[in-house]
Amino acid sequence: MTENDFLDNTTIIKYSHSNYEKTDFASVSEIDFLENKTTIKWLNTYGIKFHQAYKQVIIQNKLDDFLIKLLSDEDHPNKVILLDDLLFVTTRVLITTSNKLDSEQMVFIVSPTFLWSIQEKPGDYFNWIRERLEGNKGIVRKKKADYLLFLLLESIIDNYQDTYEENAELSADKLNSTHIKPTPEFTSLVEKRKQELFNFKKATMSLKDTIVKLEKMEIDGFDVKYFSELKEQTNNLISNIDFELQELESKINLIFSIQGHRLNEVMKTLTILSVVFIPLTFLAGIYGMNFENIPELKYEYSYFILLGVMVLITIISIWYFKRKKWF
């Protein structure tokens, strides 16, 4: 990864209550977090492999050199680490722009006066925040970088919520209770939806874990009061996911019940037929034996009498089964 690749994938937005500036860079040395402490800087980088450029930015801005080690690891579990006057926050988030849910590593290095967001893959959910900054909408330009971090995390949660609700509507149409059928295709749809929900729940709980850790941080000039609302949003989303998972589990159980009922009906029908034909087979077996002295065989109407007895046995058996409400 060259320096030019890093610069092509990096932008900075500088803002205050009265000013806004979006800048591209000609060299890494132009990235300065220390200038003009009254201006908030939001540096955004797409790509997590620019290790040499990261090292240069950290050294020239006199940031905690432990960041060099942290950023050299491209796959972090959830972490919220308090360093010298800044926080290192990393989490894995879902990418919901395609039908197949993917994930990416996202890193935030934040202090009261700057925020550096590093995303594994190009594209994000943050354009509405950029528009608010540029148009000076809301209170974002009156706040510090802690509020910007709150908005970025809120944007991720909102995207989860919107995607979940959209998929839930599609799922409700396909998996409507009136359409439940004990077929491999229907069962496959249920299992696919359950896997999607597990992925959503895992990602949401991961984000919640990060938010809970952020709530406990104490750093001068960094207000953690915003994050309690985010925790509530993640709790609501997890509750909705759990409720749908319970519904899907009920549908799977209903499918098994339907299959069991059908199997019982088939077995009952076969059993009744067997019970009806067992005495008939018995009579046919007796009179089909090759003994010379079977008196009934000499009688003129033996064949018709035997048929009559068989019919009578059949009628009595069916009457008895109906009386017992076995079918």
From TrEMBL:
<dbReference type="InterPro" id="IPR002523">
    <property type="entry name" value="MgTranspt_CorA/ZnTranspt_ZntB"/>
</dbReference>
<dbReference type="GO" id="GO:0015087">
    <property type="term" value="F:cobalt ion transmembrane transporter activity"/>
</dbReference>
<comment type="function">
    <text>Mediates influx of magnesium ions. Alternates between open and closed states. Activated by low cytoplasmic Mg(2+) levels. Inactive when cytoplasmic Mg(2+) levels are high.</text>
</comment>
<dbReference type="GO" id="GO:0050897">
    <property type="term" value="F:cobalt ion binding"/>
</dbReference>
<comment type="similarity">
    <text>Belongs to the CorA metal ion transporter (MIT) (TC 1.A.35) family.</text>
</comment>
<keyword id="KW-0406">Ion transport</keyword>
<keyword id="KW-0472">Membrane</keyword>
<protein>
    <submittedName>
        <fullName>Divalent cation transporter</fullName>
    </submittedName>
</protein>
<dbReference type="GO" id="GO:0015095">
    <property type="term" value="F:magnesium ion transmembrane transporter activity"/>
</dbReference>
<dbReference type="InterPro" id="IPR045861">
    <property type="entry name" value="CorA_cytoplasmic_dom"/>
</dbReference>
<feature type="transmembrane region" description="Helical">
    <location>
        <begin position="270"/>
        <end position="289"/>
    </location>
</feature>
<dbReference type="GO" id="GO:0000287">
    <property type="term" value="F:magnesium ion binding"/>
</dbReference>
<keyword id="KW-1133">Transmembrane helix</keyword>
<dbReference type="Pfam" id="PF01544">
    <property type="entry name" value="CorA"/>
</dbReference>
<dbReference type="InterPro" id="IPR045863">
    <property type="entry name" value="CorA_TM1_TM2"/>
</dbReference>
<keyword id="KW-1003">Cell membrane</keyword>
<keyword id="KW-0460">Magnesium</keyword>
<dbReference type="GO" id="GO:0005886">
    <property type="term" value="C:plasma membrane"/>
</dbReference>
<keyword id="KW-0813">Transport</keyword>
<feature type="transmembrane region" description="Helical">
    <location>
        <begin position="301"/>
        <end position="321"/>
    </location>
</feature>
<keyword id="KW-0812">Transmembrane</keyword>
